[in-house]
């Protein structure tokens, strides 16, 4: 195949993906308390009473997927709402969540999701595609949450090594995620992605050494460690920088409380897996 042919195909793929900008989807949810209760138990926290804590809304507005629309990775297949970028891996890379008023549990709310950007970039591991999805959540006709979600598509890289073997001791001050935690979080958030429960898929298809811990699960843990007890208007932003596996010891580090607070998740090998910032509005 000539370089010119490759360039033409690349241009066609790019244009096809960019055509998804403007795609919209609306989902209404009753915000029944069961999902929030289960998530709180999983996190080891007190059960929410009247309002959802920040990021708990990720347990809601999750559309059922007909069997015909389930992809090989158990996500909704691309080409329906999200573009069919030609890369094997798909991950939640970053988020920007502004909470104007906490959602009330048990009161119906509506989320409108729109694909607002599709951008191809070259990274250290090769070409990637970044897709931005904007979410607007209303309750009782008033805006409650405005969110930007960044999804990255990238090709499988070289084999990644685990930070430790399962029989190795966990360094002091660090913790690892149990298989059961990943499984239950997937169930609560209706996330079928096989990288969180299927080791053979992780190793043989995606090239990961073990099960991958959900980015939003770690973001929720980081947000919970950074926020105060009162549910107030706030903005939480985070960016995933390196994967965490069930064999990866990590620790949560937060800065000094205030109107703006920084935090991060650190792996035991010194790599920062996630950074975050919490700002009071």
Summarize the structure.
The protein has helices spanning 3-18, 33-43, 179-188, 199-206, 215-226; strands at residues 24-29, 89-99, 109-123, 126-139, 142-154, 234-240, 250-254, 260-267, 272-280. With 281 residues, the chain is α+β, with helices and mostly antiparallel strands.
Quick tags:
nine-stranded antiparallel β-sheet; alpha+beta; Thiol Ester Dehydrase, Chain A; single chain
Task: Outline the structure in words.
- The chain is an alpha+beta fold.
- The protein has a single domain (about 5-280), classed as Hotdog Thioesterase (Thiol Ester Dehydrase, Chain A, Roll), CATH 3.10.129.10.
- The protein has 5 helices and 9 strands, in the order αβαββββαααββββ.
- It has helices at about 5-20, 35-45, 180-190, 200-205, 215-225; strands spanning about 25-30, 90-100, 110-125, 125-140, 140-155, 235-240, 250-255, 260-265, 270-280.
- Strands 1-3-4-5-2-6-9-8-7 form a 9-stranded antiparallel sheet.
- A hairpin with a 2-residue loop joins strand 4 and strand 5.
- Helix 2 packs antiparallel against helix 3.
- The termini are far apart.
Please describe the biggest sheet, giving its number of strands, its sense, and whether it closes into a barrel. Answer: 9 strands, antiparallel
Number of strands: 9
Radius of gyration: 19 Å
Under CATH, the topology can be stated as: Thiol Ester Dehydrase, Chain A
**Which sequence of SSEs, written as H and E, runs from N to C?**
HEHEEEEHHHEEEE
Domain count? 1
Summarize model confidence as the mean pLDDT. 90
Through-space gap between termini:
54 Å
* Low confidence ranges: 1-9
**Overall geometry:** globular
User: What structural class is derived from the secondary structure elements?
Assistant: alpha+beta
Strand content: 25-35%
- Could you state the oligomeric state of the chains shown? single chain
Strand order of the largest sheet: 1-3-4-5-2-6-9-8-7
**Helix content class:** 10-25%
CATH class: Alpha Beta
Name given to the CATH architecture = Roll
CATH homologous superfamily label = Hotdog Thioesterase
